[in-house]
Amino acid sequence: MEFAELKAQSRARTGKGGAKECRRNGLLPGIFYRKDNESIPLAVDPKQLDKVLNTHAGSNVIIRLSLDGAGEPVDVIVKELQVDNLKGTMRHVDFCHILLDRKIKSSVPFKIIGEAPGVTQGGILEHIHWSVEIESLPLDIPDNIEIDVSELEIGDSLSISDLAIPEKVTVLTDVDATIVHVVPPRVEVVEEPEEVEEEGVEPELVADEGEKEAEKAEAEGKSGTD
Hints:
The chain is of the alpha+beta class. It contains 4 helices and 13 strands.
């Protein structure tokens, strides 16, 4: 587990107005939740936070947060990070105070290793779960949990119970939950095109018997008057 340092500054103005003011000044608004349930509004440099979160530990990195006027740095983790999905920019962050000797709950991502034979045979490797919920001491949180798919044929699957979980980690997700499986290739059904009459071609008109008789009579009448 990695440690990273991050500086923050307290902010007096809260609410939507305070958050907008932070962003106008190039800062990311946030909240620091202490163990005594006290919440402290703060602001951090979004570029520095992005750098902190892009370590091997990802969102589970332990941050040594230095808050101006709050004495010694405190250990925190990111509790929630709000991101603008359209712009890809961070909008708000919540930090949670942790103690290194107390267990916490966290979500650890899976890391796929190897190549499934079923995929080379035309199958499709589908992900059912991308992470697992665990409980452990902060320093025992793994960066990821590896999933070896090198023996998966078409129709095979791996569940959480098939994984090698570190001894100091307690899995909270259902151990019978399927993580990945290899499914047969999808067969696309091509529908036969419907026959369409050509445009601009008028159907042949078939005169009924009455019309034929009328035309015959009219022709005979003309010939009789000539």
